[in-house]
Structure formats: C-alpha cells, structure tokens
Amino acid sequence: MRTVRLDTVSLVEPLVDPLYHESGTLVFExxxxxxxxxxxxxxxxxxxxxxxCETPAEVDGLGQRTGPRLVAVGALTTGDxxxxxxxxxxxxxxxxxxxxxxxxxxxxxxxxKVREVTVLPDAARREEVFRFATRRREQRKKGVAERLxxxxxxxxxxxxxLAPDQVQEVAGRGQFEFDPADAPLADEVLKDAAxxxxxxxxxxxxxxxxxxxxxxxxxxxxxxxxxxxQRIDTAVIGRIAEEIIxxxxxxKDLLLCMHHFKRxxxxxxxxxxxxTLITINVAAAMGYSRRQVYEAAYGAxxxxxxxxxxxxxxxxxxxxxxxxxxxEIRDHPQKGLALLRSLSRVPRSTxxxxxxxxxxxxxTGYPSQARGPQIHPVAKIVAVADVFDALxxxxxYRKGVKPYSAIETIIKNAHKGLFDTDVVKAFLRYFSLFPVxxxxxxxxxxxxxxxxxxxVRYDKPVVRIVFRNEHHxxxxxxxxxxxxxxxxxxxxxxxxxPMDVSESMFWILNLL
Length: 512
Ligand SMILES: [Fe+2]
Known about the structure:
By secondary structure, this protein is an alpha+beta fold. It folds into three domains: 2-141, no CATH class; 158-430, Orthogonal Bundle (Hypothetical protein af1432); 439-511, no CATH class. The chain contains 18 helices and 13 strands. It has a five-stranded antiparallel beta sheet, covered by helices on one side. It has a two-stranded antiparallel sheet with strand order 1-4. The longest helix has 26 residues, at 199-224. The chain starts with a strand and ends with a helix. The chain binds fe (ii) ion. The site of fe (ii) ion has 6 residues, from loops.
C-alpha cells in the first residue's frame, strides 16, 4: 500500500489506481478524473492524503486502522487532537502530544514552517467522508455533467421564435423573460481561492482552456463547412460553459488570467472564448443564477456566428473598408440569427445576444437602432465583453490597446449612454483598474503581472514580479507580492504584455 498526497492527485489525466480514504472508503475510482471541487471538499474534511491498495485485504486493513493520520497544517481545525509531539528544527518542543488545535497553534506551526502534523482519528469526520463519497458516486451515475443541459422547455427557442420578424417583435416590446429565479451564482464563488492555488490547479485550468479551445475550433469548422443538412449539436457549448463556471467558482482570479492567453492563429475562436469568459464573470457579478449565467454563456459563445459567413478577406483586411464591405460586416447579426436555425437547441436569450450585441442603449447601434429597454440583458453584457476583447486584441490592421485603456473607453462610452451602467459596474467589479492577468510597472522599474484583484484598493493588486526592468531581465524566481502589504512599492503604470510570454507553457505555469 502507498499513499498519495491529495494536492498531487491529477485533475487532468484519468486515475490509474482507485484511491481510498484512511477509513477504507473508496473515494475515487480507477479511470475517473477527479474534479477540483471534490478535492476542495476533501481538503475541508481535512483529508491530506489518499491510499492506493494493492489487494482487497489492504482495503480491509485500512478500515480497521484506527491510528493517527497526517493532516496539512492549513487543514487543522479547532479541537483536533495532535497525536505525536511536534519539534522545531533545532529540537525544541513546539506542540506536545494530545494538545487541541486552535488558531494560535496553527500560527505557531506556520511560523516554524511545519507543513503537517499527525492527529487522532475522528469518527464523525470519517462518517462525513463516507457520505461525501457515496453522494458523489450516485451523482456520477446520474451524469451530473449534463445537469444544466439546454433541454429545458423554458429555455429553448422554438422554431417560431427563431423567425427574424418574431425576434424584432419581442425586442420592440422590450419584454424579455430573464429575471433571476434562483440563488445568485456569485454566492458560490470561493473566497481566498488564490491562496490555495497549487500546481495541479494551474494544470487543471490550462488543460481546460486548451481543450475548450479545441472544442470551439471544431464547432466553428463545422459551422463554416456544409453540415449536409444536419443540425449542428450545441451541447459542446454547454460543456464549455459549465467548465468555465466551475473555474469561476473555484478560483475566479486564475480564470481571469486565462483571458490573456491570446491565440493569434484563430481570432474568431479566441475572441469567442474570451467573450464567453467575460460574459460569465459579468453575468455572475450582476447577481444572475447559475442557470442564467449558463444561458448567457450560450449567447456569448454564439454572438459572432454570423462572422463565419463574412469573407475572410474582409474580416482580415488591413486597409480601410469600402462602404460595401462595411455594410457586409454590419450584416453579421442578421446572418448570425439565420444561422442559429442550423443548430440544435438554442436558448431563447441567445437569439437576442446574436441579433442585438451591436445595439447601443442610446439607439446608435445596429441593426435596428434599438434603445435600452428594447435590448436583451444578455445582449447588453455581451456588448461590453465584445468591445473589451476586441479593443485589447491585436488585429491585422491595428495593435490591441492595454486593458487599462480599454476599460477607460468603456467607462467613457457608458457615460455617453452607449452601454448599460449596471453591466459596466459589474464589469468593473471583476476587471478593476489593473485587471488580473495584465502587466504593470512598479516604482522600482520592475515589471509585474497582476495575479489577484484587491476588491477594496483597486490600485493595489497582488502581483508576481517577473522582470527587473523594462528590458525584461528576468528574475529566476518571480516573487508574489501583495501591494497592500508593502508601503514602498506601488504601480506606476500599465504596460504591454511582454512578447511571447502569453504563449509559452513554461511561462504560463510559472506566472500563475
Ligand atoms: Fe459582432
């Protein structure tokens, strides 16, 4: 028998061996990929490691073992009984055996860099692990992954509703059914997740981003091609949306870092994923429920489908567009709406996200010059997400601007009445002055990457100091600094992302 530390369990590759809890409970089966939320739940239940058993006898042996177990210091809770004494490196007694854990003890252990202690078994907690494992297995049987699938009659647009004149008619009346029904998703978002981030969590996020990119490419290739009269399945959008929502709940700052992995090779797909990611964040910040956020993600993902019907020469043109070409581009919302008919199951709100994302609240948008109340709430969110990503992306005809100035543009346009102010406020809650994932220069000349936003002091984020200076002389071990805790360090200005950093796996892993 051997043990595996919980924070080293792969969240990416299927398990080669089943993993057991020290009480003998089977937690993860062979072949499954543990979900990060499960790992966090187990950490809360103070599980620091799981066992691999070679024989059934070993499993039985586990169940009968009543000895002490190893617990990470961070996972100690008040009342835990320490099984064996803990000494400092110099041999002084730090914690006598039998002591009950409390805040002061944890602080002391941390001060002396003790990572783990042994504690006596706790029957109640064993019972909780058992209940967790049983509940989880039942959910897996039912296929929880499909729980939010767009199959709900309340959500799916009917054939009749898909007709363009019907869409215009509903918009004209401004009566959209999209009110919050359930508890806000934002309530589920974990606090302080960034502190629990480890290598496996980073790998998990990156693998999800890569996989979603591939899935999105496949989807858009299908759209561009001839589907032989077959309807294209939209289930893939649901899977992407669910994964992004889970990432948001688990570590929203890390999720925002993903936004800055700009892919140059397939603009439409990179843009689509970024707009989806931003829309999910903003919709959650606006207080929408999980189901509504999920639905909004469909609208975001499909907002530019009409662009697949615009000739690439026009889309990628480096010189100013002729009036005819401009008209062609401005036709993509209508083309998109028509294309939705070739997809299976599209939520009702998506029709408006596609048709209205270029409308502006003051009536200056296109195609219908709709005004505030006639624009669907999802289209209002997608509009801001779309502008932010479009401005910050490099295009063949211009370089992207820094996130900082894109945010300024959005605020100015909100003042002019183009954007919905509630949407922009929610947007700013996530993309504060220096957005997570963007780069800044400090008063020491050093260049740093913003890792976590500070919700109170927008000008003092947590940063990773990567370069000594603007010549990008790199530090061997880029250090993480909370600017609220350092009086002599502050941000001087936003700077461009250093070349190539956003595309190299080595860099990505080191910087998150
Ligand atoms: Fe568009």
